[in-house]
Specification:
The chain is an alpha/beta fold. 42% of the residues lie in helices and 14% in strands. The protein has two domains: 12-221, P-loop containing nucleotide triphosphate hydrolases (Rossmann fold, 3-Layer(aba) Sandwich); 234-423, Rossmann fold (3-Layer(aba) Sandwich). It is built from 17 helices and 14 strands. The protein binds adenosine-5'-triphosphate. It catalyses: ATP + H2O = ADP + phosphate + H(+).
């Protein structure tokens, strides 16, 4: 596996508990990756930690293994909390903690939006050992519950900000402050920040972190030791596509002999685009699911479940799916729309080529996207190559007719169901544009 450093020893050498080494082995995880090798001993020493490493390089175990090791020395009460930006990522991390700690009867609570507040409050009252939460929902509990529910938070030993860079943006400022305000003071807990894109905001915390009497913060960026910011096994290509034929190109690529069996995530910038593409491709007999913020949580969960199980081969998603999701089978990421933030490209493309596997990212480039692509290339320090697998204009023209017809059907159905109206109402309620 490419991302495991050579001669890295094993988890026992890093002082990970024996029971956990066995649990990791049963998941075929035997050799620590570079970020795990660097951070696990430092976290076990009691130091705060900022860990920066590429997508798919094993950051979750880099923070989970030392926390679980320490917890197992005295497995009582609320021990650690992981905050993460999206519900699906929180679910995934909670599942990982549960799987790793099952032999130790671990209790993990998932506190995310879109699920029953009452059930979550009952879970919290049972004093779970670990909480994996999205900031908004945890802040809600903190502001609306008594000590019996959230009092245990004051005794937590660890705070993890996973995808720290995004949690430190304005979107999360208020909720994050509420969450952190309910924890022990910074000097009495260990603070662990992890991300694939270390931003200036994350770096600033490094300087602000010094606390008298506390061991020095450990900061580690694997990226600094590598000139390219994306996995080596990720192939990056671009394709110039006029706006009016984007759907036809997408359909043609997804059904071409090179990709007609590939598991793919198609990233779009807006929920309405996700909905149009899902309906259009479904009409054209592609096994497709979608994931965006305008779907009820149950549908979001079902979609992801179908995609993970390969019942759906293609997932059309907004950036709710760009962070952290670990689906080893994904072979292709299509940037159907290009994001204005180059770091978003890194996270989106990072849904493939994980843990040393091969993967491919294609960017659809319209006239107005050229400067965005240049910014991405500068950020990742790599030039994209031209995508050449599907270029026959006669074939595209042929696809165009049936794709256009399917799209027209989709738009009519959406109008009938007032999809746009629902979206506008929700956006107004949220006071912001949602993804
Ligand atoms: N030491 C290891 N050996 C083999 N596989 C590993 C190892 N550590 C982690 N993995 C696997 O690698 C995959 C990616 O790990 P993980 O999801 O933690 O990546 P990440 O660095 O957090 O990525 P992202 O930045 O996208 O969130 C997971 O399937 C995980 O089980």
């Amino acid at each position: 596996m490419a991302s495991v450093s050579e001669n890295s020893g094993n988890f026992a050498d890093l002082k990970v508990s024996k029971w956990l080494v066995e649990a990791l082995h049963s998941m075929k995880i035997t050799q620590p990756t570079a970020i795990q090798k660097a951070c696990i001993p430092k976290i076990l020493e009691g130091r705060d930690c900022i860990g920066g490493a590429k997508t798919g390089s094993g950051k979750t175990i880099a923070f989970a293994a030392p926390m679980l090791t320490k917890w197992s020395e005295d497995p009582s009460g609320m021990f650690g909390i992981v905050l993460t930006p999206t519900r699906e990522l929180a679910m995934q991390i909670a599942e990982q903690f549960t799987a790793l700690g099952s032999s130790m009867n671990i209790r993990v609570a998932r506190v995310v939006g879109g699920e029953s507040i009452v059930d979550q409050a009952l879970e919290l009252q049972k004093k779970p050992h670990f909480i994996v939460a999205t900031p908004g929902r945890l802040a809600h509990h903190i502001m609306n519950s008594g000590d019996d529910t959230i009092g245990g938070l004051r005794r937590l030993k660890y705070l993890v900000l996973d995808e720290a860079d995004i949690l430190l943006t304005d979107t999360f400022t208020d909720d994050l402050a509420t969450c952190v305000g309910a924890l022990p003071p910074k000097s009495s807990r260990q603070n662990l920040l992890f991300t694939a894109t270390v931003t200036d905001q994350v770096k600033q915390l490094q300087h602000a972190a010094a606390t008298p009497g506390k061991p020095e913060l450990f900061s580690y960026e694997v990226e600094k030791m590598d000139d390219v910011a994306i996995p080596r096994t990720l192939k990056t290509t671009y394709l110039l596509v006029p706006e009016q034929v984007k759907e036809a190109y997408l359909y043609q690529i997804l059904t071409s002999s090179a990709y007609n069996e590939a598991s793919a995530i198609v990233f779009v910038n807006r929920t309405v685009t996700a909905e149009i593409l899902r309906r259009t491709l479904k009409d054209l007999d592609v096994r497709v699911a979608s994931l965006h913020s305008q779907m009820p949580q149950q549908e979001r969960t079902n979609s992801l479940h179908r995609f993970r199980a390969n019942a759906a081969r293609v997932l059309i998603a907004t950036d709710v799916a760009s962070r952290g999701l670990d689906i080893p089978t994904v072979q292709l990421v299509v940037n159907y729309d290009i994001s204005a933030n180059p770091d978003t490209f890194i996270h989106r493309a990072g849904r493939t080529a994980r843990a040393g596997r091969a993967g491919e990212s294609i960017c659809f480039v319209g006239q107005r996207d050229v400067s965005r692509i240049e910014a991405i290339e500068e950020r990742i320090n790599k030039k994209m190559t031209l995508f050449t697998d599907v270029h026959d204009t006669a074939v595209i023209r042929k696809a165009l007719n049936k794709v256009t017809a399917a799209k027209r059907q989709s738009l009519m159905a959406m109008e009938k169901e007032s999809f746009g109206e629902r979206r506008k109402i929700n956006d107004r309620k949220n006071g912001k544009r949602t993804v």
